[in-house]
Amino acid sequence: MYSRAILISILAAMASSSVSASFIPIESSDVAAIKETRDIPVDVTPTLNDKRANDDKGKGKDDASASALASAPASVPASAPAAEVESVFGKCVPKMIFQGGLGTRPKTEFTFQSSDPTCSEGQSENSNPNIITSHIRDVVITKCGANEDGIALVITAVKTVEALNDRTQASADAWNKALGLA
């Protein structure tokens, strides 16, 4: 398909000379549309990749969510029913796993990831638990529909894992325990 500018240039060349037969690739309807000065709608609106746009919606919400820390419980009780956990975190269960062979990595290379499909969307596995916990926090705040208690729990769990400064199963266990998902 030719762009409109090229077609107009070709049409101008055709009008100034009698070499129109040499421009065979142009469809006659396109030439007719240009001659009739009909505008063909062209969408030039810049668009973002949907995933990127959704990720950007959650930026800057940590400050607004931090106010929930004051009224939040320390954690969801380990014996909490699944319905209670679901209502705190919305539609997500932000559990973290530490497993070998995730993604394209060999089975001997252990990395962190969320076991929840919504929480892991847009973030590949990583050997740094802080990257995964930050991503899970952003998703819980923006996409899961978590209530204030759930948001506060996730923010507290992020700080707990950061304080551990550990890249072993202990980080995943601390995360899950802080959220009441152990």
UniProtKB/TrEMBL annotation:
Sorted UniProt keywords: Signal
What range does the record give for the signal peptide? 1-21
Name the domain of life this protein comes from.
Eukaryota
- Region Disordered, as annotated, extends over 44-68
Composition bias, Basic and acidic residues? 49-64
Could you tell me what this protein is called? BgTH12-05941
The organism is Blumeria graminis f. sp. triticale
